[in-house]
Amino acid sequence: MLKILLWILVGGLGASAVGGIALQRGETINSLWFIIAAVCVYTLAYRFYAAWIAAKVLAVDPTRATPAERLDNGRDFVPTNRWIVFGHHFAAIAGPGPLVGPTLAAQFGYLPGTLWILIGAVLGGCVQDMVTLFFSTRRNARSLGQMARDELGVLGGTAALIATFAIMIILIAVLGLVVVNAMKHSPWATSTVAATIPIAMIVGLYMRSIRPGRVLEASIFGVALLLASVAYGGFVDRSETWRVVFDHDGLTLAWAVIAYGFAAAVFPVWLLLAPRDYLSTFVKLGTITLLAIAIVILRPEVKMPAITPFIDGTGPIFGGKLFPFVFITIACGAISGFHALISSGTTPKLLTSERDIRMIGYGGMLLESFVAMMAMIAATVLDPGVFFAINSPAGVVGAEAAAVAKISSWGFPVTVEQMQALAAQMGEASLFARTGGAPSLAVGMASLFGRVFGDGFLALWYHFAIMFEAIFILTTLDAGTRVGRFMLQDMLGNIWPKLGETSWTPSVMLTSAIVVAGWGYFLYIGVIDPNGGVNILWPLFGIANQILAAIALCVATGILVKSNKLRHAWISGLPLAWLVTITSTAAWEKLVSADVRIGFFAAANDLSAKLEGGLLPPEKAHTAPQLIFNLHLDAAITLCFVVLLWLIVLDMLRVVFRHLSGRPALPLSEAPHCPSRLIENWVRD
Amino acid sequence: MLKYLKTFWRAVRRLSGDDAYERYLEHYARCHLHDDAHECEGPLNRAEFFKQWQDQKWNGIKRCC
To answer: Å from B27 to nearest chain A CA?
Structure first.
């Protein structure tokens, strides 16, 4: 009885918090309401919806031995305590995505993004992660691609493979662009980010040779060095001789990131990737915890309006209406297809009992969604004028004075002096047009941390936040390039087996170069694009990520129907239908819209007309042909994505139809039931 | 209090892989000690084990966006 009352209380509180956020107009709203709304919605969803799915739809069976138990080899298959698995799973899924997406989507105001983060996670993202984890656990921890091939057919498997490869290339390019924009003409940020490379190598050598396997010692040592490098960046910034060494424009930095990406892909993992990952995981978890504490202590006022006029598609950060672009922009944090790759293959190998699937699959994604919520708060507690001045590309709002006039004319007052004072406080030369989300998030985080821990170190906090974002963006870049290389070697191995050998140096060099050239190209175009590049690349990444999610949900829906659970197939079918709607609409608009800020062809035609008419200044005329080619390429890629999506959806429907009409379809590939001995032992003890 | 700190420390070591070698030795003692195929070789030493463990850990998709 008391329990029921408690749940009613949680429900009431959650409803009033969400209602408060949604209906608040005019005055500012306290960010504590966002936290309360999120925690209540998450608790209710976890307690009721997730529990219902686990018990009634999936019918998890704790007496059934998991692959970790049956195939225990003491290495990759190891039955592990559920909290430890949760830690591994969360560390693997939480990257820079949930921090960048909400920051960009804040241009629509706080409400659309917040609601999508809550609803999308609870009904979509968490369900996707959980059912994928469950189905992979039932199939000896097979990967998403293998499951797609086994359950839907060759087409499904191939589509999953291509989508994964494409999303990897675009993801790395856009993340590289975020780092480049954070380092552009900032000696402090550049020197700190550069220092993370030798630090990672020292840590790698320490773990490998000096004290083999002493991972914690090495990491603690490395984190101390990282913090020192943030402080030393301040020294570089003040020194006239050192400043110039680290003061570069975007293009130089882009080439540096490309060279680094190639080196990281060919170096052995222990030298760079593995130690960097330890450092980034520690810094990431520490900083996110710190941010949560700062928000709860300070309870800052949200200054952004609930809804801005930019829902009509005229927003400066990226073009496009609220529907469908808010759903594309916030992928990670609401629903991210990439998670399906971790939930299948990696995590199931550690699962001790099917009972843990709800906590790890559903719970892990809830926590990631909470991270996105904090990013949304950090973006919206900034003065809207400042937020738009940092995030709007110069190609859209003009340079300093023009930008300030334009942004103020939208009703978000800001002055050049205010921006200069802020930049000086943060130890930067300028904060205008620092697109990509990282600088504005860092300003938001620095002002929060500054208010908790003292205002004196704002510049240190700002560059700490930049380092924090850069270090795990670079980890994703390393890891992604390497995965891309393995996938490419695997594909090329079918043509010429020698190329498939992962230890054959010429093949390693060739495939790494191809992968790096792939994302390097998009990064290069993003840097030379006067509109900032993020406005093109981020939606493309969002579409790719949502399409991967749609593939995972197709596999899940297909399996549910084939297991004679048609009645419950809506749990994955509903989010699938929504994803197909938003990705198809977004892709359609990207292809045919007459608005030059949305449509690829419209932009290409506009640029060609200007080029032919001689309306472009010489430096722009020089890059225009490349930009025009790129716009056509982006259009082709978008078209490929949608065709891929529809092929796999139709393929899933074909399998479902055959099953329902009693015709032969691919059988379920579930591993046979095998009783868990862990349970027996536990009962006997 | 001390008990919680110890549990926490164990979790941190487990999560980071700091205790991977100890767990390997345990697994070895449990499963392979009386196994003829392994008898003559004995368990790997710490450095060798760590090399294999690390190379294998990074084989596949381990990090997300």
So the answer is: 6
